[in-house]
Description:
Blueprint (H helix, E strand, L loop, with lengths): L1 E10 L4 H17 L3 E17 L2 E13 L1 H13 L3 E9 L8 H4 L48
Antiparallel strand pairs: 1-3, 1-4, 2-3
Helix pairs in contact: 1-2
Amino acid sequence: MALYETVLIARQDITSAQVEGLTETFTGILKENGGQVAKVEQWGLKTLTYKIKKNRKGHYVYFAHDSAPAAVAEMERNMGLNEDVLRFMTIRIEKIEEGQTAMLSNKGDRGERGERGERGERGPRRFEDRGDRGDRGPRPPRRMEASSEGDRA
C-alpha cells in the first residue's frame, strides 16, 4: 500500500451537504478496497482560474489516504463518471503531513499584513491637498479632429 493525496473540484451549484455526500462516497470506495483515509479537508468554494465545463467556481475537497493502487484506480474511475466532479488529481507522496494543510492554515492567518484595511507602518491613507506640484514642462499640441459636416469634400 502507498500514500496518496487526492484533490477534487466539484461543481459550484451543489450544496455543502452534497459535497459531504461525495466525500463520503469516495472515502467509502477507498475503504471497501482495503484503503485507509487519514485526513479529509473541505477547502470550500473557490474561484477557478479559468472556466471548467461552464463553471467559474468549484468546491475543493482534499483526501490523504493509504491505499492500494487498485483502490485509487476505482475511486478515480467513479470520480470520472460522476457529473458533479469537474476535475480531480491524485499524487503519490512519501508521508502524510500532520495537522492542517496550507490551504486551511492560511485561511484565517493574515501574517505580517494584519487585518484587511490596515496600512501597516505607513498608516492610514489620507486624501489631502498635496500642494503645488510645480511646472510639468511643455505639453504636445492637441490634435484637431475633423468635424462631421465641414471637412468632407
